[in-house]
């Protein structure tokens, strides 16, 4: 079922011309150019249809909810256009059918809020006058850009707090799939933890889903049973946080502030906010400036660390906040060598620093992370 909704908007850092007075927009890190023959033709606001394809339900209070807030920001910024969405799109031929239906319904811009690969690419190639964006995409086309968030930086900062608050040094991670976003998240989290506990380790359990509360709860339970006292993950709901609350452990979450599900367990969350990014891309599409880009929303401008939980000691919060400030002002980059993989091989030599491209495509585990590499 396709639904239509609208609501509020919010932004960050002024990037120049934008729809509506005072709209603020995040800086974005262009990591790989996507080439196009030229900007797509402008579209009158009253004729525009902006469609969103989601991997989960908009009620998940996580990843899909965050993108839904972005759609509502677009509807508020441009009240004459039409927005629509389909939630919980499967990774199958049904996805292709749904994205084709968006085009058939005269969508001039389509956002796939997760990586749908060939299910989306085939549709985009057949609709050259439609602007497409794929979140966490890997294959830009003349009319398809990709975007994601630099989540490895806040994951590192949250890892500092996790390492300080873990009596055992045994951390656990509930993983969706062994994909780059999981490798970068686990690695960054453990690297942060090891700045305060050099012997810390991170055990992962892969549940093969982005949204499966029952499986996430089971994985969280298994990790605590195995001795982990701080949990992290990339799930779209609060399952493992509730387990941590019940078992007296701690947890770091993803996407949104979920502390009410485990106020004593909650350390923080990796917070994502796509509202300003979506509003700017739609503005560019309407005025005829849109060409595909490959953007990473930066730390503090689309992805951040949530306010610390009520049980995080003040000195731990202060230490993590100081590192966050040094990352954001450019005086410190945590992803400098020497960095070894889980087999002991040097992957980043001393004196070298991983590029944003390498961080985005990270596909190997560091020493101390188990459960992802064969």
From TrEMBL:
It comes from the Bacteria. The keyword Signal applies. The keyword Ribosomal protein does not apply. Keywords: Signal. GO terms for cellular component: plasma membrane. InterPro entries: ABC-Purine-Binding, PnrA-like, TAT_signal, TAT_signal_bac_arc. Residues 50-289 form the ABC transporter substrate-binding protein PnrA-like domain. This is Nucleoside-binding protein. Residues 1-36 form the signal peptide.
């Amino acid at each position: 079922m396709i639904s239509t909704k609208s609501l509020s908007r919010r932004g960050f850092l002024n990037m120049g011309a934008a729809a509506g007075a005072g709209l603020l927009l995040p800086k974005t890190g262009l990591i790989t150019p996507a080439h196009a023959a030229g900007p797509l033709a402008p579209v009158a606001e009253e004729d525009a249809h902006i469609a969103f394809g989601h991997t989960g339900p908009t009620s998940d209070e996580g990843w899909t909810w965050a993108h839904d807030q972005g759609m509502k920001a677009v509807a508020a910024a441009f009240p004459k256009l039409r927005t629509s969405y389909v939630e919980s799109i499967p990774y199958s031929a049904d996805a292709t059918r749904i994205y084709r239906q968006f085009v058939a319904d005269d969508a001039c811009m389509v956002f796939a809020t997760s990586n749908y690969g060939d299910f989306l690419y085939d549709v985009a190639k057949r609709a050259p006058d439609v602007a497409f964006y794929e979140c966490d995409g890997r294959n830009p086309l003349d009319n398809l850009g990709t975007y994601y968030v630099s989540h490895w930086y806040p994951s590192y900062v949250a890892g500092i707090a996790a390492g300080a608050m873990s009596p055992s040094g045994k951390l656990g991670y509930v993983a969706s799939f062994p994909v780059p976003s999981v490798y970068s998240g686990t690695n960054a989290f453990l690297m942060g933890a090891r700045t305060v506990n050099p012997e810390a380790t991170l055990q992962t359990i892969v549940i093969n889903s982005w949204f499966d509360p029952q499986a996430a709860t089971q994985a969280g339970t298994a990790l605590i049973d195995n001795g982990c006292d701080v949990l992290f993950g990339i799930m779209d709901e609060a399952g493992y946080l509730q387990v941590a609350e019940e078992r007296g452990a701690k947890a770091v979450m993803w996407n949104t502030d979920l502390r009410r599900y485990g106020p004593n367990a909650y350390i923080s969350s990796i917070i994502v906010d796509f509202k300003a990014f979506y509003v700017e891309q739609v503005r560019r599409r309407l005025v005829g400036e849109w060409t595909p880009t490959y953007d990473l929303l930066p730390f503090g401008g689309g992805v951040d660390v949530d306010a610390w939980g009520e049980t995080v000691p003040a000195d731990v919060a202060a230490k993590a906040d100081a590192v966050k400030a040094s990352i954001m002002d450019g005086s410190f980059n945590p992803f400098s060598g020497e960095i070894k993989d889980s087999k002991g091989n040097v992957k980043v030599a001393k004196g070298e620093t991983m590029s944003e491209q390498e961080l985005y495509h990270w596909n190997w585990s560091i020493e101390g992370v188990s459960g992802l590499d064969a």
